[in-house]
């Protein structure tokens, strides 16, 4: 009987250690995939927003008005993400874990939108994710 309890305790300890080791890896993988999806998805929306701006001389009120969608989906790993568009700031944002990915447009001297990318509050490993964003 005592050997049974010891076996259960050893299994519980091993399971706890496995979770402690694997949980950060799984969390990083999920956040990386979401950030990369947001980067690719925002690139696609920027094409539509730029076209709208050049045609109308102002930003659309919504992504849908420009022919886009706030909903992002990656079937390869079944990831969903929701972009937010703020026409007043000319800014796309995507929550990523406890942080966010932000794409902001400024107008060049000739009136052409120039987009930058900033990521803040992401895991320290984000510098390896090839987001081509300024990490803060």
List keywords for this structure.
Glycoprotein, Type 4 Pilin; alpha+beta; 136 residues; two-stranded antiparallel ribbon; single chain; five-stranded mixed β-sheet
Summarize the structure in words.
The chain crosses the membrane at residues 6-26. Keywords: Membrane, Transmembrane, Transmembrane helix. The strands form two sheets. This protein has a five-stranded mixed β-sheet, covered by helices on one side. It is of the alpha+beta class. The termini are far apart. The chain has one helix spanning 2-56, and strands at residues 71-74, 79-82, 84-86, 91-96, 99-107, 113-120, 134-135. Helix content is 40%, strand content 26%. The protein has one helix and seven strands, in the order H-E-E-E-E-E-E-E. The mean pLDDT is 83. The chain has a single domain, classed as Glycoprotein, Type 4 Pilin (2-Layer Sandwich). A hairpin with a 4-residue loop joins strand 3 (84-86) and strand 4.
């Amino acid at each position: 009987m005592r050997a049974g309890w010891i076996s259960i305790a050893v299994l519980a300890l091993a399971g706890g250690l496995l979770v402690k080791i694997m949980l950060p890896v799984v969390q990083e993988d999920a956040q990386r995939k979401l950030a990369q999806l947001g980067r690719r998805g925002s690139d696609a929306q920027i094409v539509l927003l730029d076209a709208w701006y050049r045609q109308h001389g102002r930003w659309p009120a919504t992504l849908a008005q420009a022919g886009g969608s706030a909903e992002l989906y990656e079937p390869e790993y079944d990831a969903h993400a929701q972009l937010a568009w703020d026409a007043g700031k000319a800014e796309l944002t995507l929550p990523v874990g406890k942080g966010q990915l932000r794409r902001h447009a400024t107008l060049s001297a000739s009136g052409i939108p120039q987009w930058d990318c900033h990521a803040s509050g992401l895991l320290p490993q984000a510098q390896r994710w090839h987001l081509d964003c300024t990490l803060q």
